[in-house]
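Database export, one record per block. Field names are fixed; values are copied verbatim from the stored entry.
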Amino acid sequence: MLEQIGVKKALATLGVHRSTIARWLAGKAVIPRPSWLLLVLMAEGRLPGMSEDWRDFRFDGDTLCQIGTRIHYTAREIAGWPYQLEHSRALARRVVALEKEKAHLLKVGYFEAANDALIAV
């Protein structure tokens, strides 16, 4: 795992001495769980304990990326999803209302526009 990250980056991120990492690699000391979890995050780009549903995603810097695609999301985009969902629901409700109005106008047979009376004069 350290080969993927690089020893220098691990030293800087974990704040440990290089002899500590040497002891970990030699098996002379147990890697503390918080350090291990951070190494997993850095190496695999995923949070420990994530379900299999998240296997195709990884963190790349400050974005969440879907592996094998060009799809990536920032925190700001993810935070905006509820608003986009509500906007699409409002648009769907507006379409239903307009379709009802159209059906009513076709049933009544009223096809004139508001300014047709001015043109006929």
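Remark 1: Residues 81-120 form one domain.
Remark 2: Helices lie at 2-5, 7-14, 18-26, 33-44, 75-79, 81-108, 116-120.
End of record.
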